[in-house]
Amino acid sequence: MSAAPDPSRRALLLGRRAATPPLRPPWALDESAFLDACTACGACVERCPERVLVRGAGGYAVFDPHLGECTFCGDCVDACAPRALDRTRVTDAFDTIAVAGDTCLPRRGVVCSSCRDGCPEHAIAFPLTSRVPVPSIDAARCTGCGACVGLCPVDAISLKAHATEPA
Ligand code: SF4
Ligand code: SF4
Ligand code: SF4
Q1: Where, if anywhere, are coiled coils annotated (predicted)?
Q2: Looking at CB atoms within 10 Å, which of 19, 126, 156, 158 has the fewest?
Q3: Which of 52, 79, 106 is the last residue of a domain?
Q4: Do 56 and 108 fall into the same domain?
Q5: Alpha-carbon span 139 to 165, nearest angstrom
Q6: How far is the CA of 144 from the centre of ligand 1 (A)?
Q7: Looking at the domain assignment, is residue 86 inside a domain?
Q8: Which is it for the CA torsion 110, 165, 140, 96, positive or negative?
Q9: In the chain, where does DSSP find H-type helix?
Q10: Domain encompassing residue 119
Q11: Per-residue pLDDT tens digits for 15-51
Q12: Atom 8 (ligand 3): residue with closest C-alpha?
């Protein structure tokens, strides 16, 4: 069940990572170190009680927030024998923030606040600055848990690397 990943697939993934790096499980090493350490055994995927981890390209684990919220229980880290997920070396579980895109309903004049209701950090506010208030996400509060992503009726909200978030 836990065959080692094909090195050529690893090289392919590394070659692509600059364009669209996937969301890795929490406390993952940076992408290159993660791919070096991870054996694609799938132990983290099997252990996650929220079922938010899946096997992605090359068999490597991916966090899919459309499946639910990461509760930061740490079970995936504990399951990772080669320590590709490592709380002692990675400070923040995720280096991402939620971003509402152009298809967000209030930006099209339709009232909606579904994402706010699911945020455990109360990071999403709807300031009364327009007739139909649009979401404002507090980067200091957002943990990248993904709870908001699956709640959006039009799939307008996603997790982006901090470096790529809009100013
Ligand atoms: S920290 Fe817990 S909920 Fe989050 S991905 Fe790991 S096992 Fe799943
Ligand atoms: S749930 Fe989606 S459409 Fe509604 S306010 Fe949030 S991001 Fe916009
Ligand atoms: S990712 Fe989590 S903490 Fe951030 S806005 Fe969404 S629900 Fe809130």
Answers
A1: none
A2: 19
A3: 79
A4: no
A5: 9
A6: 12
A7: no
A8: positive
A9: 7-16, 31-37, 43-47, 75-79, 114-118
A10: 96-164
A11: 555 566 799 999 999 999 999 999 999 999 999 999 9
A12: 119
